[in-house]
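This follows on from our talk about sequence and fold. Go ahead and set the record down below:
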Amino acid sequence: MAYEFQITRRVEFSETDMEGIMHFSNFFRFMETAESAFFRSLGYSVVLSRNGLAMGLPRVHAECDYEAPLRFEDEVLVRLLVEKKGTRSLTYQFRFYRLNDTGRQQVARGRLTAVCATRQEDGSMKAVALPKILAEKIQEAPAQLLAEGSRSKTAPAPRGTHHSNPA
């Protein structure tokens, strides 16, 4: 069962302002990129209808705290951790690291909560249980891992990109 996923990408010119600093809104795009890649690594699409499931994962909460700017052409590691897996929702922690020759520097932390929902006949959304086939593949990250990023802003460069429970 998976609880972590990492993806690396470079800040593109179109994602920056006139000073070459990545616009704050792009951190949310990077979160969605990491979430989509996480789902693909599990054999699913974040668009559940592509898997024959008549439901979606609308966002009900999103936040990001910024510690240092990212600039044009910076290489960025986005680390997704499953903070909480509820019966109807998933909450992720995201950590953003600028990669350099000496390791990585944490530049931001984000959080995103999505609720599994179906559309009702009147157009409203109703929360429903996560599909069993998906819920069985996802678990919450260990508490120690979730607390880690708040203690240290610099850490060694990453080794892998996908971590699962060895049990």
Summary: Residues 67 and 84 are 24 Å apart (CA to CA).
